[in-house]
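Structure request: G-protein coupled receptors family 1 profile domain-containing protein, Adineta ricciae.
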Amino acid sequence: MSLLYISQQTTIYAGCSLVFIGMLGNSMNILVFSTVPSYRTTSCTFYFLISSIFNIAYIVINLISRIVSAGFGIDPTRTSLAWCKTRQFCLFTLSLITITCSCLATIDQYFASSQNVRIRRWSNIRWARRFVVIVIIIWCIHGIPPILYSDISPTTKACGNMNARYADYIPFYLLGLICAIPIVVMVTFGYLT
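Returned structure:
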């Protein structure tokens, strides 16, 4: 058995397990959060509902294509420029939307449990809908550079970033927007709650 074979099998079986568990869990979240009447009017559950919807989109677009690519050697990003750019856009945008919704749910819990009446007013479904629309618009705008700078390399035939300046930004994106800022927000507002 070669290391490549073991890697492919691990990708297939672990990836399929993640897809199954992720789809099942997020589908159950959507079912519960959208059908229970008391949850439909709560802003915190609205954030989790939106997060679950975008998690499913992330799983379908990014995780399944990664399993097919690494596990079976079928990689449409090597042949289709449109899919290369779309996948990069979704990779950046969908993950940021779900993380931001989790942060907003934590902040909303702080608002809901505050002793200050003015702060408690921020915890309502009307504000939650506005915040989600703003978040989606901001992260879709943030996802424009991956569309512009992603391309299929003529030498490696791999989809990736072709702009040096944008390549310098990506580590800051990963460390800041995906890791550090959400952790700080959740820990801070979780502690304040």
